[in-house]
Amino acid sequence: MPRSVNVVAAKQRRKKVLKRTKGYWGRRKNVWTVAKNAHEKGLQYAYRDRRKKKAEFRALWIQRINAAVREHDMSYSQFMHKLKSNGIEINRKVLADLAMNDPKTFESIVKKVK
Prior knowledge:
This protein has 114 residues and is mainly α. It has helices at 7-20, 32-70, 76-85, 92-101, 103-113.
């Protein structure tokens, strides 16, 4: 009995991967085994970094808030504690945006907390 090989599906699968690795450097873009490995690794990085991005943005917001609050003689941890104790519920993303783009509003929040 002859061997059954689905060449059409295999070629489509390879073409799909090679199309996605377009723009990679060297053999990663046109040699099937190397391109397949590069593509799979890229998908792993994408999956990991979609989660990592959230932590990186939170760290950035905290740095911005800390820098803005220190101009008013207070540390980040003191500021956040006083926000919570005064019942002001503004998240870090909004606070960082206010600190950068609207310093007067941020200053009024700091004064209200003090």
